[in-house]
Specification:
By secondary structure, the chain is α+β, with helices and mostly antiparallel strands. The chain has one domain: 4-Layer Sandwich (Deoxyribonuclease I, Chain A), CATH 3.60.10.10. Helix content is 27%, strand content 27%. The longest helix is centred in the middle third of the chain and has 22 residues, at 116-137. One of its GO terms (biological process) is DNA repair. Its cofactor is Mg(2+); Mn(2+).
Length: 256
């Protein structure tokens, strides 16, 4: 079973690339982020025509997450995180798919920092940690997949100096991510590529793709029951180089 996290950076603009990916790779479960689409304009018919059922949590022009399943309809468990009733961002969607609990996550960027956006990022990470603890306590096989907007380690970025002041690499961001993993989650890509230097994102600016100036911010965290079934993890980076591609590449874990 291939489980993919894919920040599409606008599902309407990238729909040809998404459908191309679904057709060519035939992943079993796909967690999408940054849909930038309202619930009403989500392209359900096109995705169903490609053989996938879908549940989505949209927001016009911003954010937005979805869970796709090949040949099946995901069953929604929860949308949004508890803890801030005024938070209307579409950033978390949790579904049952083929015996797994799968969450698609689009964590706040947090820039500029310091400031209210960074404070919101850290609060959101604590709310995610609370939900993650509940999933572990329930002992359900779970995958938390998404764009975490956190560069966990120095070898997860092309240049530590270039990103030193960015919210993605601040000590607070990293500490919150490490605390989440320390609950008992397995970072699939890290465990299979412990040497680092595996990128999932290349900015559109300054020829980042051409220079391979990327970093790793898309992560799949596996609960113990899923981690025991992990076969491989990787990045389908070639899709980043296609015409009008997202600035993220599909990031995946294969489990038995």
């Amino acid at each position: 079973m291939k489980i993919v996290s894919y920040n599409v950076n606008g599902i309407k603009a990238r729909l040809p690339r998404l459908l191309e990916y679904l057709t060519e790779q035939q992943p079993d479960i796909v967690c999408l982020q940054e849909l930038k689409s309202s619930d009403e304009t989500f392209p359900e018919a096109d995705i169903r025509a490609a053989g996938y059922g879908a549940v989505w949590h949209g927001q016009k022009g911003f954010n937005g997450v979805a869970v796709l399943a090949r040949g099946a309809d995901p069953v929604e468990r929860q949308r949004g995180l508890d803890g801030e009733v005024e938070d209307d961002h579409s950033r978390y969607l949790e579904c049952d798919v083929d015996g797994l609990v799968v969450a698609s996550i689009y964590l706040p960027n947090g820039n500029p920092q310091p400031g209210p956006k960074f404070d919101y990022k850290l609060r959101w990470m604590e709310r995610l940690a609370q939900r993650a603890r509940a999933l572990l306590a329930a002992e359900v096989p779970a995958v938390l997949a998404g764009d975490y907007n956190v560069i966990p380690n120095d070898d997860d970025v092309y240049s530590v100096q270039a990103m030193a002041d960015d919210a993605l690499m601040q000590p607070g961001s990293r500490a919150a991510y490490r605390a989440l993993v320390a609950q008992g989650w397995t970072d699939a890509l890290r465990i299979r590529h412990p040497q680092g230097r595996v990128w999932t994102f290349w900015d559109y600016q300054a020829g980042a793709w051409q220079r391979d100036a990327g970093f790793r911010i898309d992560h799949l965290l596996l609960s113990p029951a899923v981690a025991d079934r992990l076969v491989e993890a990787g990045v389908d980076r070639d899709y980043r180089g296609r015409e009008k591609a997202s600035d993220h590449a599909p990031t995946w874990a294969q489990i038995r």
